[in-house]
């Protein structure tokens, strides 16, 4: 039966698709529609949602394609019978760091949207540059070096902005943009992030940046919660800081701020209620932590093509290898993030090698052999306490955590002597790689999150309370078991079975909270009261196992030494 109560839309404008997901006040999903950029877009020759200029390591997306997608997704929801007049609030999530450049006509064109024409027809002319640099862009090494050096070094930049300079971060991207495209930069009246671009179109005026997503720019001072003057001035170059600040706009601190009512275009074309409220859209990672009432000490691990580790924490402990963002809804909390390039592909390569070796599943995508071999292998590949521990690094793609070229390295580690040896002596490859690769990915997470976890029970060492797995790998119970053995998880390891929808769901929940909260009520409190744990999550592994957890505490020391050694070797090459 169609829902009669208030409804909320969460959009997810990600790299390869736009999704619109509708929930009711009780958080149940009632509609969902998708637009796949490669398959569904007309007139854009994108691959995996983007265009590339390999010579300059540029990756970018045509903004007009996103406008086409927004009309299409809304039309699909209408065709599904969604009663738009019940929608009280709309929020969204955008791929992080991407920037959109509006020209001097943008405000008028946004305001004057006419229901008789598409968004693409009307707003393409509002852009001073037709493309949005994508988070996979790697064209800004020079600008990153300059950003890191400006405040002293990468530690200092991380201390101030929550992250060292990264190619994809918007500050280095804007710096390169103003140098490479001076005319377009001068014609730019406002700059949006992908998230605030989405809110702008819905609102019919340029929307401010979101308080969490703004931290993905290397321009925001996390502790002062304002623009860092030195960084903005440097980024603006000869055009001046005041001018750039005008382009960036003011940033409200409330992630649930009511930005305004939806533009009449959407009322007339799709049947939205004129009072429907637009809320700030945030980044896709901050939105993902809103897909459940994540408590401090809970961790989310996304096991997709890449690996992402997310925590909500009251502590700000920046480091060049990690990221801190303002929490998207809750002042006083931060989102901690580790963002790797490698993950699923590396595990699949080991799986395929094992299937080839065993023969029974040659050429298949089955995980049966991998899982069995991994669970039969002892912790750290150590059959007896006197054997060395086996550990490795598996990077089919260049990695960012740590910053290393693609490659594979194998080591034996003797914990008593704290000795490392680069060797495959004693390894039965590729079988021993099954446990070693999953351990390697999890040990890296344990190493880098160790300062954020605490003991939540007497006598139990510091570790996450719960580990939630999302993404493709989250359905694999064997991987979940090893993840729990390495990372811990006092209450266990859970899969959040929302498929690829976590991010859109988080955006829709944010809209529910922003509209229905009582004064001062936190997101965690409101969503926590409505969230039905037994329907939304499943416990898939026990988590903390004292003996294994202690052994991995020893292994993590060897792992850290191994990374340092490989980094040294590589820089000497
Ligand atoms: C995070 C990042 C990616 C994108 C993906 O820093 O760059 O996770 O947000 O859309």
UniProtKB/TrEMBL annotation:
Gene Ontology BP term (one): xylulose catabolic process
CDD domains in the record: ASKHA_NBD_FGGY_SpXK-like (cd07776)
Residues of the Carbohydrate kinase FGGY N-terminal domain: 135-289
Taxonomy, superkingdom: Eukaryota
Pfam families: FGGY_C, FGGY_N
Subcellular locations according to the entry: Cytoplasm
GO molecular function term, any single one: D-xylulokinase activity
InterPro entries: ATPase_NBD, D-XK_euk, FGGY_C, FGGY_N
Keyword Transferase: yes
Main localization (coarse): cytoplasm
Purpose of the protein: Highly specific D-xylulose kinase which participates in the catabolism of xylose. Xylose is a major component of hemicelluloses such as xylan. Most fungi utilize D-xylose via three enzymatic reactions, xylose reductase (XR), xylitol dehydrogenase (XDH), and xylulokinase, to form xylulose 5-phosphate, which enters pentose phosphate pathway.
Protein name: Xylulose kinase
Organism: Uncinocarpus reesii (strain UAMH 1704)
């Amino acid at each position: 039966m169609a829902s009669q109560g208030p409804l909320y839309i969460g959009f997810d404008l990600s790299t390869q698709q736009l999704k619109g997901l509708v929930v009711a006040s009780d958080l149940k999903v009632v509609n969902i529609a998708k637009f796949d950029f490669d398959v569904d877009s007309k007139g854009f020759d994108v691959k995996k949602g983007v265009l590339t200029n390999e010579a300059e390591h540029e990756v970018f997306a045509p903004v007009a394609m996103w406008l086409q997608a927004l009309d299409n997704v809304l039309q699909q929801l209408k065709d599904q019978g969604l009663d738009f007049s019940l929608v009280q609030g709309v929020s969204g999530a955008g791929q992080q760091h991407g920037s959109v450049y509006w020209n001097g006509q943008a405000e008028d064109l946004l305001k004057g949207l006419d229901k008789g024409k598409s968004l693409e027809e009307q707003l393409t002319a509002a852009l001073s540059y037709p493309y949005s640099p994508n988070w996979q862009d790697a064209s800004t090494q020079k600008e990153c070096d300059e950003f890191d050096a400006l405040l002293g070094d990468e530690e200092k930049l991380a201390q101030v902005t929550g992250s060292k300079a990264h190619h994809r971060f918007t500050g280095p991207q804007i710096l390169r943009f103003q140098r490479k495209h001076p005319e377009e930069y001068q014609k730019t009246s406002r700059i949006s992030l992908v998230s605030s671009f989405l809110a702008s179109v819905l609102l019919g005026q340029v929307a401010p940046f979101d308080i969490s997503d703004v931290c993905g720019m290397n321009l925001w001072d996390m502790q002062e919660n304002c623009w860092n003057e030195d960084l903005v001035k440097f980024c603006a170059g000869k055009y001046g800081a005041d001018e750039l600040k005008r382009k960036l706009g003011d940033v409200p601190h409330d992630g649930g701020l009511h930005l305004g009512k939806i533009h009449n275009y959407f009322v007339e074309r799709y049947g939205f209620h004129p009072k429907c409220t637009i809320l700030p859209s945030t980044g896709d990672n901050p939105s993902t932590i809103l897909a459940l009432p994540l408590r401090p000490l809970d961790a989310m691990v996304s096991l997709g093509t890449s690996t992402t580790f997310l925590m909500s924490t009251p502590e700000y402990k920046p480091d060049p290898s990690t990221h801190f963002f303002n929490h998207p809804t809750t002042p006083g909390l931060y989102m901690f993030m580790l963002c790797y390039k490698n993950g699923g592909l590396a595990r699949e390569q080991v799986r395929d090698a094992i299937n080839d070796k065993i023969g029974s599943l040659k050429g298949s995508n089955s995980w049966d052999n991998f899982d069995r071999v991994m669970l039969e292998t002892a912790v750290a590949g150590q059959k007896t306490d006197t054997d060395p521990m086996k550990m490795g690094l598996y990077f089919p793609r260049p990695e960012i955590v740590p910053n290393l070229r693609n490659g594979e390295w194998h080591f034996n580690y003797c914990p008593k002597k704290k000795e490392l040896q680069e060797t495959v002596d004693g390894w039965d490859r590729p079988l021993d790689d099954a446990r070693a690769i999953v351990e390697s990915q999890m040990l890296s997470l344990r190493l880098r999150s160790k300062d954020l976890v605490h003991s939540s029970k007497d006598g139990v060492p510091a570790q996450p309370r719960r580990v939630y797995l999302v993404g493709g790998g989250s359905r694999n119970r064997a991987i979940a078991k090893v993840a729990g053995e390495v990372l811990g998880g006092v209450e266990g390891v859970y899969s959040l079975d929302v498929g690829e929808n976590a991010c859109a769901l988080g955006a829709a929940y944010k809209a529910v909270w922003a509209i229905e909260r009582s004064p001062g009520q936190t997101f965690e409190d409101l969503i926590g009261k409505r969230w039905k744990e037994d329907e939304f999550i499943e416990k898939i592994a026990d988590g903390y196992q004292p003996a294994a957890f202690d052994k991995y505490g020893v292994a993590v020391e060897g792992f850290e030494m191994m990374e340092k050694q490989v980094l040294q070797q590589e820089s000497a090459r």
